[in-house]
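In response to reviewer comment 3 from the previous cycle, which asked for concrete evidence that the modeling workflow produces usable outputs, we include below a single protein chain processed end to end. The sequence was submitted unchanged, and the resulting structure tokens are shown without manual editing.
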Amino acid sequence: MDKRIEYVLETRRDYTDEVSLQHFPATTSVASVTDLESSVKYSFRLAAYNRFGRGAYSNSITESTRLKCELSASFNQDSLWFIVVANGF
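The workflow returned the following structure tokens.
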């Protein structure tokens, strides 16, 4: 019987060698990845550990994060200008 001990989730930022490994108990069915940058492509793959060591990684899944920003705008009716401020890049 192949009793899993834990999972390891590999997160790789596209076009870099930057890799993050997160370990989760074998009872985990949902995992969250935090601290990702907006508008960046990441690849994810998963492997399981048992008493014999780590198994093979799954196929990679690649996703892009969305741009996160807040927009605020002001319009001056007496002049011909419009100001847009974007935060959160």
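The first strand starts at residue 4 and ends at 13. We consider this sufficient to address the reviewer's concern, and the full set will be provided in the supplementary archive.
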